What does this fold into?
Amino acid sequence: MEVSDLIRPNFIKLTPYSSARDEYSGKEGTFLDANENPFLSVTDEHFNRYPDPYQWACKEKLAAIKGVSPENIFLGNGSDEAIDLLIKITCAPKIDNILILPPTYGMYKVCADIQEVFVQEAPLTDDFEIDLDTVFDSVNSATKIIWICSPNNPSGNLADREAILQIVKAFPHKMVVVDEAYIDFSEAPSFLRDLEKYPNLVVIQTFSKAWGMAGLRIGTAYAHPEIIRILNKVKYPYNINQLTQAKLLESLGHEERKNEYVREILALRESLREELESLEMTQKIFPSQSNMLLVRFEKAKELFAFLLENKVIVRDRTNVILCKDCLRITVGTREENERLLDYIRQFEKTI
Ligand SMILES: Cc1ncc(COP(=O)(O)O)c(C=O)c1O
It folds into this structure.
């Protein structure tokens, strides 16, 4: 399989915009090539120069942490940018399709809908495992991407590694994207270590969860260098701004702090689980390898409204496939979890 087989031919041929910083990437010089303001900025911090379009300093540091090469990394304005561009480079509008495994993260379908790309669905089983037969039945010749979210949002569970590998191996001519937004909260190893073996595999991660940088908007796609090269051709030339690159570089020096957050969140998740289990209106708490708990409650909709009235905001998933009567609860601080539990107990007394 050639990696280029996964990509729409127009993107293989595309001559991308050549920015000033593409044509001269040296740090020293008299810069009269990009129509910038030579007198610094109107703010005290200076932003008058365009940033590195390929974010090499960040990628080098990230590559060392993740055990990949900088050429395996695409940085996006959140992983949502990577999701959008992966669909763009593989799927012809009104012809091709992506396969999603609902219930799952909503942006795969939204990005496909925006681009007029068809969406095939192979729902997970009742306990949110991959249903391989349905996946194999749902893939057709126009399917370009199979999306697997693991740990999954909104269920929180980890997909079976062997099932994912079976899909990756069965469809070498299709892109298989494993979205690992929540992988830091899981004991399972990342699929990053499988990238070299499977050129059709793409792994997505984000700085928005365990790293605590959601407001910065940084997500990553890790893939074969040829896929990354095409993503770089298609992205906006300076998609990651200077401030974000600087803060990302800073955050990469604090991996241990991220690990501490993870340990703390996991401990809080387990105490939240225990407390929720002791409530009468809790019907089921699904297994989680993430920072969320999907919980089936008696009177879930009413509970959601009561919590909202009291400014405790959880996610109503009651109308989502396989999530009947379920609320998705992000693990908060000890105090936040206590407040949530207090209001649930209050509500419980009224029913
Ligand atoms: C599974 C999954 N992937 C990707 C994202 C998007 O993350 P980002 O903030 O990097 O765009 C989310 C956000 O909630 C998510 O749940």
Q: What stands out?
A: The longest strand covers residues 143-149. Residues 78-80, 105, 149, 153, 179, 181, 206, 208, 214, 219 surround pyridoxal-5'-phosphate (CB under 6 Å). The radius of gyration is 22 Å.
